[in-house]
Amino acid sequence: MGSQSRIPGCEILLVAMTIAVLYGGLLFDVRRFHRHNLQKRTQTHDHNATWDVQLKASASKSPQKAGGIPKRLGGLDAYQKECQLGISDAGLNYWAGLPFVGEGVQPGQCFKVDGLQKGLANKVSLFIVAGYCECEFFDDDSCQIGLFSAFNRADFSLKNNGPHNNMIESIRCKPTDHINDFQSGSVQIRLGEVRGAYNSGKKPDASEVDYKLEREQLYSCFPITVAFAMRSYKINGVTCDFFLEQNCTEYIFTAGNAGRYEKKYRLGQSPPNLKGFKCYPPYGLVDGPRDDL
Ligand SMILES: *[C@@H]1O[C@H](CO)[C@@H](O)[C@H](O)[C@H]1NC(C)=O
Ligand SMILES: *[C@@H]1O[C@H](CO)[C@@H](O)[C@H](O)[C@H]1NC(C)=O
């Protein structure tokens, strides 16, 4: 107060104006920076959008079968619940592994691509994210400038599928099964004898079991009471384990993903009599779009 009274009025005005201009410029820059970040974030942190993309992932971007994963990704299994990440350049340089496993590894930590594998930063041209996790890919090496997120999705040719080829420098993965996005799934199983030489071409006994699964029915065992060999099945929007016993013991195989998965067995190739199954929020790469909605 005391010192102010000694400064003449016009000087105060000048100082005030200078401060206003400087502060205004700073504010403008800060706001622009935030807006920039915000746009990136709404694009890439929208987990519902990531889920939708996963549901609609086209066959050209996702491999049709687990066997379609390039060998150089070190034998990743795209059909297990545990989070898996694979990235590779167009040649032989790659990193593939479990992003939540390792000494001192925290879920949600930022991995520099060059820290995972030397020389891979700004060279990533294919990726796979599988299991119960979502990974976000960034244009800088400290997880600031988001490019896109992936959940059970692979793209084996970023070069041909959009603007992100040779851009990724850091990656952050967080555990999620997207159970809150889960609406319903369905399992249809056709059981019965196949028309063939041994039943003289007669119309075979067949029966279809058709289950619609709500969220509350995930993780529950469904007994199958009809005792016939399985001829075909179709699973929409869930991943299920199949068992030999009605109490879901004696595991046989796992099938299904967020899209549609169908399998028909040839004569004599059906698995042993199925007696039960249990389903989970979907994981694994999508083969094709659902047809039960
Ligand atoms: C995401 O999806 C859930 C379930 O469908 C919904 O409740 C929620 O409002 C959605 N969030 C956004 C941001 O759209
Ligand atoms: C499941 O069912 C089979 C066959 O009925 C039985 O032998 C087995 O003990 C059961 N297991 C459990 C854990 O209930």
Can you describe this structure?
The protein is α+β, with helices and mostly antiparallel strands. The chain is 17% helix and 30% strand. The protein is built from three helices and 14 strands. Strands 1, 2, 3, 4, 5 and 6 form a six-stranded antiparallel β-sheet that branches. It has a four-stranded antiparallel β-sheet with strand order 8-7-10-13, with no helix packed on it. The chain has a four-stranded antiparallel β-sheet with strand order 9-14-11-12, with no helix packed on it. The N and C termini lie far apart (73 Å). Residues 1-7, 24-45 and 57-67 have low confidence and may be disordered. The chain crosses the membrane at residues 12-30.
Kindly list the characteristics that best describe this protein.
single chain; 293 residues; alpha+beta; six-stranded antiparallel beta sheet; four-stranded antiparallel beta sheet; 14 strands; 30% strand; disordered N terminus; binds 2-acetamido-2-deoxy-beta-D-glucopyranose
Secondary-structure blueprint:
Elements: H1 9-44, H2 47-56, E1 84-88, E2 94-97, E3 110-112, H3 113-116, E4 126-138, E5 146-155, E6 170-175, E7 184-192, E8 206-214, E9 221-223, E10 230-236, E11 239-243, E12 251-255, E13 260-264, E14 276-280
Antiparallel strand pairs: 1-2, 1-4, 3-6, 4-5, 4-6, 7-8, 7-10, 9-14, 10-13, 11-12, 11-14
The structure holds 2-acetamido-2-deoxy-beta-D-glucopyranose (NAG) (2 copies).
